[in-house]
Amino acid sequence: MPATPALLLVDLQRCMAEPRPVPRNNPDAEAHLAALLAHWRAQGWPLVHIRHISRDPASGFAPGQPGAAFQAAFEPQLHEQVLEKNVPDAFASGALERWLRVRGLDRLVIAGVISENSLEATARSAGNLGFIAQVPEDACFTFAKRDFRGRPRSAEEVHDMAMANLHGEYAEVLSTRAVLDRWA
C-alpha cells in the first residue's frame, strides 16, 4: 500500500455554514466531509485543519468573529494540526508545506470550501509543489455566482469548472467513496 495521505480540511468554519442568499451545490458535502474525518481519525492518520483568518475586520472570517470558529462537527481535537491562512492558498505562507515535508507526507486528500477559491488554490499549489493530491469533489461545495462577463452561473457550474481545472493537472478528482475505498 502506498504511503498514508494527509487529509487537509479547508475552511470548515461557521460562516461557511450560515445561510446565503445564493444557492450552493453538494448539499451532502458535510456528510462526506464527516466521513473522511472519521476515517482519518479512526486510522490515526495525519490531518490538518486549515482556517481562514481575514485581515478585513468586517469579514465573517475576522479574528474574534463567531464565523471564524470551526463548525462544531469539524472542531479539531487537541492533537490535530491547525494552520491559519490569510489568503485562499493554504500553501502561501510556507507553514503547510514545511509541516508536510518534515513528516515525509507527499500524498494529500484535500476537501472543504469554497471549490473555486481556497480549495482550488490549495490543490493547485499542492500539485505545483509535487504533492500527489486527490480531491473528493462531493466533499467540497461552492455558491452560485456571476462569471467574468456578468452571466449567472449555478453553483454546480462553478464547482464543475473548478474540478475540471484541477483534474489531471494538479490533482485527481474523484468521489468520497472512491477515496475511502482506495485508503481502506
UniProtKB/TrEMBL annotation:
GO molecular function annotations of the record: hydrolase activity
Domain Isochorismatase-like: start-end pairs: 6-177
InterPro entries: Isochorismatase-like_dom, Isochorismatase-like_hydrls, Isochorismatase-like_sf
Keyword terms of this UniProt record: Hydrolase
Name of the protein described by the UniProt record: Cysteine hydrolase
Organism ancestry: Bacteria, Pseudomonadati, Pseudomonadota, Gammaproteobacteria, Pseudomonadales
